[in-house]
Amino acid sequence: MSEKIVFSGVQPSGALTLGNYLGAIRNFVTLQYEARCYFCVVDLHALTVPQEPERLRAQTLEVARLFIACGLDPAVSTIFVQSHVAAHTQLSWLLECITYVGELRRMTQFKEKARKQEVVSTGLMTYPDLMAADILLYDTTHVPVGEDQKQHLELTRNLAERFNNRFGPIFVVPEPYIAPRQSGSRIMSLTDPTKKMSKSDENPNSYILLTDPPDVIRKKFARAVTDNGREVRYDEKNKPGVSNLMVILSLCSGRSLEEIARTYNSSGYAQFKKDTAEAVIATLEPIQRRYQELVESGAIDQVLCVGAARARQVASAKLAVVQDRMGLVRAQCNEG
Ligand code: ATP
Ligand code: LTN
């Protein structure tokens, strides 16, 4: 069997949320011992909507540190920043040239994000091509993401197949790796449980940040939207708020949804919310401790340097093959 290769990216568009952790990063940690893994802070993707330069720089380093604080091991996984490997933007352009405008316009994330912007950048529209480039450069076989990224992955697969049909079998067609909802692939907003928890939400009570202090976490859960009933039972459709809290409590405590329903059923929501907050605090405590150590040690620069060098080697070799197949002339310089 051929080697399992994993690639995933996280935008430094804000501090990471519990949704990012439970839906994506937690799974990266397990996967790194089963596959060759690349984990990328996709700063160029964050630029598709306006960013304040100094904040973007700080958040990029923050996400990289949080990767490690959450358990990614730079000795095992390749951890790097997207803009440090030029092949990503180079391949993105080549893929844009085989992508149809209609395909990009159809993307739900594009439509949702475009609606929120006064003016829409071209980058927001070609975002999925850059994501496809990220993935295809590394012969990725599996892409662990939250449910919201399913459509982008389908486009990536279509582009890989289209390229292979036109130019020969160059790209591996990657498989999405999306856990079931009950395993955290779509953690919902605490203030509107019909929307996903998102770090770019304007209401900070809607999300839990991995760096939120215990008291803030307690307050946010105490205010979390549930419903008028008293029953703690898993029912995404009729009880989205309660179901979301059940998933969070289950993933942070190791208790099953059935056991949670049995324990809190008919007791009202107050104790259930309190226990959920405490389970989240306990899960985040070691992450926050390691994060602080990383800030103090300043070790992140070296990790990212080594990661980029490793990634560059693989990515530039793949890019050269693609350029060649598409008919670009290789630069042949005889110096002297
Ligand atoms: P933004 O809110 O700024 O659009 P985001 O958090 O949705 O950002 P990323 O930071 O790039 O986007 O997401 C990183 C990973 O976290 C992706 O795999 C994404 O699917 C996953 N993810 C994001 N939000 C959630 C969520 N609420 N539940 C589960 N997984 C999520
Ligand atoms: N679009 C993704 C982030 C992302 C990504 C990737 C995920 C960029 N490149 C490659 C997996 C593989 C998002 O979560 N918003």
How would you describe this structure in keywords?
336 residues; mainly alpha; Tyrosyl-Transfer RNA Synthetase; 3-stranded parallel β-sheet; two-stranded parallel ribbon; 5 strands
Question: Can you give a write-up of this model?
Answer:
This protein is mainly alpha-helical and 336 residues long. The chain folds into 2 domains: 5-180 and 298-325, 3-Layer(aba) Sandwich (Rossmann fold); 204-293, Tyrosyl-Transfer RNA Synthetase (Orthogonal Bundle). The protein contains 13 helices and 5 strands. The protein has helices at 18-31, 43-46, 53-69, 87-96, 101-105, 108-116, 122-136, 150-167, 214-222, 240-253, 257-264, 270-297, 300-326; strands at 5-10, 36-41, 78-81, 142-144, 175-177. The strands form 2 sheets. A 3-stranded parallel beta sheet has the order 1-2-3, sandwiched between helices. Helix 3 (53-69) crosses helix 12, helix 4 (87-96) packs across helix 7 and helix 7 crosses helix 8. The protein starts with a strand and ends in a 10-residue tail after the last helix. The structure holds adenosine-5'-triphosphate and L-tryptophanamide. Adenosine-5'-triphosphate (ATP) binds at residues 10-11, 13-14, 19-20, 23-24, 145-146, 148-149, 185-187, 196-200.
Write the layout of secondary structure elements.
Layout: E1 5-10, H1 18-31, E2 36-41, H2 43-46, H3 53-69, E3 78-81, H4 87-96, H5 101-105, H6 108-116, H7 122-136, E4 142-144, H8 150-167, E5 175-177, H9 214-222, H10 240-253, H11 257-264, H12 270-297, H13 300-326
Parallel strand pairs: 1-2, 2-3, 4-5
The structure holds adenosine-5'-triphosphate and L-tryptophanamide.
